[in-house]
Amino acid sequence: MPFNPRTWECEHLFIVYLGPKEPKTIEVVKSVDHRTPNNKVVKRKKPYIMPDDQLEETILMPRLEAMVRALDTYPEWPAGVEDVWGGAAGWDCPGPPLCYLPNCLAKRRGSLVWPRT
Q1: Domain locations in the chain?
Q2: I want to staple 31 with a disulfide (CB 3.0 to 4.6 A). Which of 43, 50, 51, 94 is the partner?
């Protein structure tokens, strides 16, 4: 490899949203204060990459813990995961405008049951 992935630091982060018609590339940005040549402070969007420890603490671990609880209690809805995932509590498909998938698994709820081991 032409670089060391352990020491390489990203300058830009892009997320590819797989939409129903085509993929859409979105750069992760954050609004920051910027001083203009006229000494005026304005908001500008700059590329943003969250530090690993902050990402793990605020996004990854809460969602992972919610997923583990959901898998343990399915087909019952685990209390409190809607606070992490957003939306209403329940396994049902929210439908448009949140879900336009024609073959959404949540629409076929009865087929999502698996045996406990």
Answers
A1: 13-49, 51-87
A2: 43
